[in-house]
Amino acid sequence: MTVYNKSRYVPTPAYMTRGVKLLKLRTRKQFNFNNATLYTVIQGDTLDFLAYKIYGSSSYFWAILDANPKYQSEMDIKAGDILVIPAVEDVVGD
Length: 94
Fold this sequence. Notes:
Layout: E1 14-17, E2 20-23, E3 37-40, H1 47-55, H2 61-66, E4 82-85, H3 88-91
Antiparallel strand pairs: 1-2, 3-4
């Protein structure tokens, strides 16, 4: 199994079952919300696009999802929802 080097799954332990390599469940990262901002989702927004605009790479989409535990996936987020956006220094370089 190959995992992209900036993936949130890099530190996630893996195990084999029936010849298939699986990842264990990953714990959401906790962020310092003192430097976070709020963002109101508009129609057409995606987490990877927001991550690209904010962090310079779409691969950091996971940080926005982790900072908003009320959402299990991007599909739960709708236009008008308010997201907590972690500060760049708390995400990039992790």
